Amino acid sequence: MSWKADVEKFEAEHPWPSQVGVGSLFRFQSVNRDKRHYLEHLFVDSKLYHATANQLNDPFECRPYFNWPSDPKEIKEMRKHLRGLLKARGLSHKRADAQVSKLMSNPGSIHEAIAESATNTFARARICSFTTSNKNLLFWSHYARSHEGFCIEFDASILPISYAFKVRYVEKYPEIKYPAPSDKRGLRPLLLKSKDWEYENEFRTIFYPTAKTGPNNDGVSLILSGSEVKNVYFGARMENVDKELIVSLIEKGPFNPGLWNAVLSKTSYGLDFEPYSEKDS
Question: Can you tell me the mean pLDDT for 91-108?
Fold first, then answer.
């Protein structure tokens, strides 16, 4: 597949929100009053925390496997890339070529080295997950502590949220190619999950803290401008003291979102949202 065709394939499989008509993205959270600094981090400091792969709840995250290529063109490209790495370390073309031949005569050792290198690379990625609905009952149960937490609506038309990639759900376990693409296609293993997770309809913002270019960040969080948070929805079982805490933090920060109470529908398995008032507390 040509470079252009593969880029187009990636863009079709992992579109940005605007490319699929998504105007808002949502995150569900719980409240821990003893760790209010996590809430202050977002609402007061306007920083959106991004986790590492090993902090996510799916142990298969970002662990693609490396399969030794059988295509002569891919093998030739691998040889060329390895030779370039060795020459960059000061080896002559002749010595680099000899070293590569030696390495490739023992696929087992190089297979292990490439797999370990890929695992280490993906472990440095920082990831934040979003979904496309604030009414998903499983999200309210799993991520908002059985409706005792809250949901944040982000404007998906504003950077950096607008650069969230759509996650693709697949049957086949993700495989990495070597050398990995140096453009956004290199994020592909971070954007593939088992079909068991398809109900989440997930988008992700991703950055590498050590990247020379990328969104504004402090190494663990993206720095927001103060206009990304559109609405905050309080869970149907959320305690008033927790609502008051969130409101007080919002008032200290740059955001000016709408505030809503989630209410259990009386006629269906669903939620309605009513405007929040301090009188409700």
Answer: 82
Three-state secondary structure call for residue 228: coil
Contact between 149 and 28 under an 8 Å Cβ cutoff? The reply is yes
Question: How much is the mean pLDDT over the chain?
Answer: 91
The CA distance from 113 to 109, in Å, is 6
Q: How far, in Å, CA of 211 to CA of 41, rounded? A: 23
The separation between CA 101 and the C-alpha centre of its own chain, rounded to angstroms, equals 38
Band of pLDDT at residue 280, cut at 50, 70 and 90: low
pLDDT attached to residue 251? 97
Whole-Å CA distances, 15 to 1, 123, 166, 191: 20, 23, 6, 11
Q: What is the pLDDT of residue 247?
A: 97
Q: Which two tokens stand for residue 6?
A: 């593969």
Would the pLDDT of 281 be above 60?
no
Helix (H, G, I), strand (E, B) or coil at 7: helix
Largest Cα–Cα distance of the chain, in whole Å?
79
Sort 35 into a burial class: Cβ within 10 Å, 0-12 / 13-18 / 19+. Answer: exposed
Sign of the Cα torsion 185, 186, 191, 192 reads positive
Q: How far apart are alpha carbons 122 and 64 in whole angstroms? A: 9
Give the closest residue to 153 by CA, choosing from 168, 133, 171.
133
Distance separating alpha carbons of residues 247 and 28, to the nearest angstrom: 16
CB atoms within 10 A of CB 130: 24
Residue 169, C-beta contacts closer than 8 angstroms, at least 6 positions apart: 192, 193, 194, 195, 197, 198
